[in-house]
UniProtKB/TrEMBL annotation:
Record-listed FAD binding positions: 3-18, 267-277
Gene: ahpF
Subunit architecture: Homodimer.
Gene Ontology molecular function: any one: flavin adenine dinucleotide binding
Co-factor binding details: Binds 1 FAD per subunit.
Positions annotated to bind NAD(+): 146-160
Source organism of the structure: Rhodoferax aquaticus
Protein name according to UniProt: Alkyl hydroperoxide reductase subunit F
Length: 307
């Protein structure tokens, strides 16, 4: 059995693997796609000490560092189920989609999350070419430009307020007939000079030319009239979904599906820890996922020396 088995190989899982392996114990990582969301990132400019890199380079460096510690990397392996240890200090089982079962004294869950897509023509085509999901990450790329935010919930309105301070003009597109964000955010939004809100507006297409976004089409749901706005960026803010469906009923999840962790990365299941975007820890970012991963590994080690 592994001393520490990590499920998920993004920044959280890789950091956990390095921290655990440096204790001289047996560490494995099972990951559907090593590198996680960083594989899909164009420019990373907010990781301390790294002025600028791109996602694939970052992901390759994560893997090389993890391998250098002799960690057993099982890439392209999806976990379908976990079975907690029957008694304190026993082994937890992780059942893979390929039918295999891995056993470990401790397990760290770091399966990350995925942005919900609006699924309109142009979204996939112009991803990273004007279509963005993370204002903290990509906001500065649109400095001085016009952008839209799709989604009028808390994350959409937070994004619009944030972006209004960075870009030239922000148009908010909300499907429902009113914004669903907290009143204090909506009030703040309406106080800004460079924001327009369209409610009852259904995004129908993200348009582009020469390989980048040049506009957004939406239908006014009250009149049926279709409009086109010229702009250079679209931030899709209709939800971040944690990859935790396979844990339901076994590990405590929040109402958003995030694994509930304490400040040391413990879940409610003894010997099972969690880190990164799949947890209740706020602000989903690489530096945060990596630091949570290292914390979870130290907590797992602490668990091992007590059992
Ligand atoms: P993830 O990176 O999501 O990794 C999850 C891992 O778990 C993957 O290996 C995945 O394959 C695996 N997995 C999932 N389910 C299972 C399963 N059932 N079994 C086995 N493995 C599983 N953050 C920044 O700080 N700066 C940026 O510039 C930035 N830009 C971004 C741009 C884009 C387009 C996106 C999508 C995100 C960006 N982020 C950025 C956010 C950042 O990528 C995430 O916060 C970070 O990757 C989270 O790390 P994680 O390890 O928690 O999860």
């Amino acid at each position: 059995p592994y001393d520490v088995l990590i499920v998920g190989g993004g920044p959280a899982g890789a950091a956990a693997a390095v921290y655990a392996a440096r204790k001289g114990i047996r560490v494995g990582v099972a990951a559907e796609r090593f590198g996680g969301q960083t594989n899909d990132t164009m420019a990373i400019e907010n990781y301390p000490s790294v002025q600028e890199t791109d996602g694939p380079k970052f992901a390759a460096a994560l893997e090389a560092q993890t391998r250098s510690y002799g960690v057993d990397i099982m890439n392209l392996q999806r976990a379908d189920k976990i079975v907690p240890a029957a008694e304190a200090g026993g082994l937890t089982e992780v059942v893979l989609a390929n039918g295999g079962t891995l056993k470990a004294k401790t397990v760290i869950l770091s399966t990350g999350a995925r942005w919900r897509n609006v699924n309109v023509p142009g979204e996939a085509e112009y991803k990273n070419k004007g279509v963005a999901y993370c204002p903290h990450c990509d906001g500065p790329l649109f400095k001085g430009k016009d952008v839209a935010v799709i989604g009028g919930g808390n994350s959409g309105i937070e994004a619009a307020i944030d972006l209004a301070g960075v870009v030239k003009y922000v148009t908010v597109i909300e499907f429902a007939d009113q914004l669903k964000a907290d009143a204090v955010l909506v009030k703040k939004l309406h106080s800004l000079p460079n924001v327009t809100v369209h409610t009852n507006a259904q995004t129908t297409e993200i348009t582009g030319a020469d390989g980048k976004v040049n506009g957004l089409k939406y239908k006014d749901r009250a009149t049926g009239v279709e409009h086109h706005i010229a702009l250079e960026g679209v931030f899709v803010q209709i939800g971040l979904v944690p990859n935790t469906e396979f844990l339901k009923g076994v590990v405590d999840l929040s109402k958003f599906g995030e694994i509930v962790v304490d400040s040391r990365g413990h879940t409610n299941v003894p010997g099972v820890f969690a880190a990164g975007d799949c947890t209740t820890v706020p602000y989903k970012q690489i530096v945060i996922a990596a630091s949570e991963g290292s914390k979870a590994a130290l907590s797992a080690f602490d668990h091992l020396i007590r059992h």
